[in-house]
Specification:
6-stranded antiparallel β-sheet; single chain; 10 helices; 5-stranded antiparallel β-sheet
């Protein structure tokens, strides 16, 4: 009797061989699913499983076919040939992967310290696996003609190439990036208007972590078309620039001293190469200066620039340097009052530009100012080339003059050795290794 189906049809009875085949097929599929799942789970935490994941997946398929045979599934000649080919293919790729581990990971990376491009290893292994597969197919299936297969593959590749042109462009651009190595993992780069740290390079894209901690994915084809600025090549040092304006009434050497002292103690700013200051422009409202500081890492540039600007404001405030507003002011200066008996009022100072105590000022008056190593009540210089009483700056009634007091190394004004000399504003006085600048207020 044939049992009746739910829709009025008739279901033929299952034979024992069919039941065995279904059970064998279920056992093989279950084995493959369990083994491949175990490989995918373990590859997250075990490096060796991650390195051999493709080999283990092929082994899982071979094990599943073995379970099918052991469970009593019907074995035809073609099945036996495919199973044998799969076992030999598993042995071949296992050997190739072990060779790859030795060559790439042990020989180049561990022993020679060579950092290989990220895409080189998988690309080389993929080519080796493909060649092994075709050679074993030729051996185990000699009657199989690979010509039509290759021809079909060529036509298919042409169609897919036209359809997947953007993806393939990114793929080949990724290979070029891996070979040329214009940047590496952890490098800080700028691509177009995008700037950040390289965290990953894949076949198709490059992942950049921006300063805002956002992960930006850039297609490799886009990187190949843009200018790439690598801030870590040839080294991580980077020149940071800060521009600031100062009032015209302040001498540039005072501004330079005030800017240089702002750099000391900032984390990430280098002492060597030493910071420097450049006069950039005589602008409408101010003299523009540029402070140049070498920093360790471009990633810290924003923080260092902010700290520099804060310190510049404090330093200028401390030294009485004005940052003028970008405005034009018309001032009417009052006429200077004539001094009694036609004599000018004593007014001036000396600024220590170089040497011990650089950055300090000493006000001048009608009393003479003694300059030397042991000048009581005068300007004492911590300089081995300065005499005990080296020189004297005195008021002459119309201005200031400097007189050498028979010193051993002499007194120099603007590069000329003098015994006595009238001083003019901005004259530079050299005593040993100390440089003084004479300043006088406009009258």
């Amino acid at each position: 009797m044939w049992p009746e189906g739910g829709a009025g049809g008739i279901i033929p009875p299952l034979k024992v061989a069919d039941v065995i085949t279904l059970l064998a097929l279920a056992a093989s599929l279950g084995t493959a699913a369990v083994l491949i799942g175990a490989v995918l789970y373990l590859r997250r935490s075990l490096t060796i499983v991650r390195q051999l994941s493709f080999v283990l997946c092929v082994g899982a398929i071979a094990a599943a076919m073995g379970v099918y045979a052991l469970a009593g599934g019907p074995l035809q000649t073609e099945f036996e040939q495919v199973f044998s080919w799969l076992v030999w293919f598993l042995a071949a790729i296992t050997l190739l992967r072990l060779i790859g581990l030795y060559v790439f990971d042990i020989h180049f990376r561990a022993q020679r310290g060579v950092q290989l491009p990220p895409l080189l290893v998988p690309a080389a292994l993929a080519v080796a696996y493909l060649l092994a597969a075709f050679l074993l197919l030729r051996v185990w299936f000699p009657e199989l003609s690979l010509g039509p297969l290759l021809a079909t593959s060529a036509v298919t590749s042409l169609i897919l190439g036209l359809a997947l042109q953007p993806i393939l462009g990114n793929l080949f651009a990724g290979i070029v990036i891996s070979l040329e190595k214009p940047f590496r993992i952890e490098d800080w780069i700028r691509v177009g208007q995008v700037e950040g740290r390289v965290v990953e390079i894949t076949w198709r894209t490059t992942h950049v972590r921006t300063a805002d901690n956002d992960n930006l994915i850039i297609p490799n084809g886009k990187i190949a078309e843009e200018y790439v600025l690598n801030f870590y090549a040839p080294n991580r040092m980077h020149l940071a620039r800060v521009r600031v304006g100062a009032h015209y009434s302040v001498p540039p050497y005072r501004v330079r001293r005030a800017l240089i002292e702002c750099v000391a103690g900032i984390e990430g700013a280098l002492d060597k190469p030493s910071p420097d200051v450049f006069v950039k422009e005589f602008a409408d409202s101010a003299i523009d200066y540029e402070l140049r500081v070498w920093i360790k890492d471009i990633a810290d540039a924003g923080r260092i620039r902010s700290e520099l600007l804060s310190r510049i404001w404090e330093s200028f405030k401390r030294h009485g340097i004005t940052i003028p507003f970008p405005i034009r002011t018309l001032e009417f200066a009052p006429r200077p009052k004539p001094a009694a008996h036609g004599a000018a009022e004593p007014s001036g100072r000396v600024f220590i530009l170089e040497g011990a105590g650089a950055g300090a000022s000493v006000e001048l008056s009608a009393r003479p100012l003694l300059v030397g190593r042991t000048s009581p009540g005068g300007l004492q210089l911590d300089d081995a080339q300065a005499s005990k009483e080296h020189a004297r700056i005195e008021w002459t009634g119309t201005g200031y003059a400097i007189a050498d007091l028979n010193s051993s190394f002499g007194t120099w004004v603007n590069g000329v050795r003098v015994s006595r000399c009238d001083l003019n504003p901005m004259d530079r006085i050299t005593i040993g290794g100390t440089v003084l600048v004479f300043e006088r207020d406009a009258t």
